[in-house]
Amino acid sequence: TFTQENGEPLQLSAPALAVSIPVEQAVEADVESIAARVFNEPFSLLRGPLLRVRLLRLAPDRHVLLSALHH
What we know:
By secondary structure, this protein is mostly beta strands. It is built from one helix and five strands; from the N terminus they run βββαββ. The protein has one helix at 31-40, and strands at 2-5, 8-11, 23-25, 51-59, 62-69. The strands form two sheets. Strands 3-4-5 form a three-stranded mixed sheet, covered by helices on one side. The longest helix has 10 residues, at 31-40. The radius of gyration is 15 Å and the shape is elongated.
């Protein structure tokens, strides 16, 4: 995350981060629109985390993993 110190941005690094991976049932035709929604959601630089992950389950043996990282 980020904060300010003496008016300057300061990056804070967490020693560890537990990230939940929500699983969403989806169909192939919706993958692009779901990905756009996940990737276009803004990050909170103050609260974090600066990582977003979602697993789309298309079939019992077919999945798509979406991950968005703030750079």
